[in-house]
Amino acid sequence: MYRELIPLALLAALFSLAAVKCSAAPAELIWHEATEFEIEGQGWTATEAPYDRLPAHAKGSVPEGVWGLGKHSAGLCVRFRTDARAVSVRWELTSENLAMPHMPATGVSGVDLYLRAPNGTWQFVQNGRPAARTGNVMSANLPGSPTECLVYLPLYNGVKRVEIGATADAKLEKPSPRPPMKRRPIVYYGTSIAQGGCASRPGNAHVAMLGRMLDRPMINLGFSGSGRMEPAVSQLLAELDPAVYVIDCLWNIGGMPEAEFTSRLTTLVETIRKTRPLTPILFVGQSQIHPGSAPSHIEMLQERVIKGLRDAGTPGLSFCPGKILLGTDGDGTVDGVHPNDLGFRRHADALAPILTNLLRKAPAGT
Fold first, then answer.
1. SS3 for 100?
2. Closest CA to 175 of 220, 128, 116, 122
3. Which of 3, 10, 219, 355 is 20 to 30 A from 72, comparing alpha carbons?
């Protein structure tokens, strides 16, 4: 009987080997600059920094506030394809201000990872929660079969560097091009709401939601407090070649004298029409948490100006009423103005069918 007993020395050695195996270091990650893949949502490639939203030549021509907010990475996303069983995202921010009183750090400075499911829809995987300006890392599991992924960048902060990490045996590569009929982006120009204030994470901003719902690139040109239809910004819009323009500026332009508002809106349309004579332009009304407040005075003025331009022969102009954007229960904002995640979902649900219809009517090739 005693011969069947395992010697104590051997037993100790086996336990030692098991402990070493359990505490083995995780496989080393190979890090890739996000710029090796596809940075979607940038209207221009000649930018001052890799993750800017405005072109370098806009510096000095657009208002200083617009230029500064153009350094925020709102709407930018990294698209890639991988067969990894797990990926990590490492990002470095440009500002120490990670959050705002009414918007969490996960939205202001965080990142979001989505994957394309087998049925073609986009599914949320993981949010990256920032802890400091540098050294932020998020890790998430993936199926392990070739999968298209999407990483949204921060809404109210800039990023200096973004890297995607996976083990050496995993493939990380550029995704397949979008289908020809879905390559042209939608340009969304507006206020803090367009920029994404105050979504809890980047993927919950309605501009990002619309990109997933319509399966199209979105160029987010929302500038907090600065969506005022200045001629220099209108000229920038005219440089782009989208499938649809969306103009959502009323919360930043409401106190402007009627004559100046009419002039700016008219100039914006005329400037775009010089280079894009047929591209649909959708004007969004002023969102209101109290149904009886809609339409606001500035929204009614916007509709009058649009109708006047249409009557004068300008094609492709339409508008979305603000009363359909937030619902009727008052629960769609954090402060009476800026949407929460529920409010952004309602924005996206209201705008998606309108944009779908405009895309059907858009010129060939869009």
1. strand
2. 116
3. 355
Distance, in Å, from the CA atom of 75 to the CA atom of 58, rounded to the nearest integer, reads 19
Query: How many C-beta atoms surround the C-beta of residue 277 within 10 A?
Result: 11
Strand, coil or helix: what is 38?
strand
Measured distance CA(226)–CA(88) in Å, rounded: 35
- Domain extent listing, the chain: 29-63+73-173, 180-361
Query: For the chain, how big is the Rg over CA atoms in Å?
Result: 24
> Which of 25-39, 124-138, 192-206, 247-261 is the least confident region?
25-39
**How far is Cα 298 from Cα 261, in angstroms, rounded to an integer?**
9
Topology given in CATH for the domain delimited by 29-63+73-173: Jelly Rolls (2.60.120)
pLDDT in tens, 11-35: 344 334 333 333 344 579 999 999 9
Residues 207 and 223: their CA atoms lie apart, in Å, by 13
pLDDT at 281 over 80: yes
What count of other Cβ atoms lies within 10 Å of the Cβ of residue 219? Answer: 24
The CA distance from 120 to 117, in Å, is: 5
124 forms beta bridges with: 114
Please give the Cα distance from 245 to 221 (Å, whole number): 11
Distance CA 186, CA 246 (A): 7
Alpha carbons within 13 angstroms on the beta-carbon side of residue 73 total 32
Q: Which two tokens stand for residue 269?
A: 């349309």
Q: In degrees rounded to 5, what are phi and psi of residue 64?
A: -55, -40
- Per DSSP, helices labelled H in 64-108 are 64-69, 105-108
Fold topology of 180-361: Rossmann fold (3.40.50)
Report the distance separating Cα 302 and Cα 298, nearest Å: 6
Chain position carrying tokens 């045996």: 169
Distance linking the first and last C-alpha atoms of the chain:
83
For the purposes of burial, counting CB atoms within 10 Å of the CB of 5, is it exposed (0-12), middle (13-18) or buried (19 or more)?
exposed
The residues with which 339 forms a beta bridge, in sequence order, are 333
For residues 195 and 64, the answer to whether their CB atoms sit within 8 Å is no
H helix intervals, 111-230: 192-195, 206-214
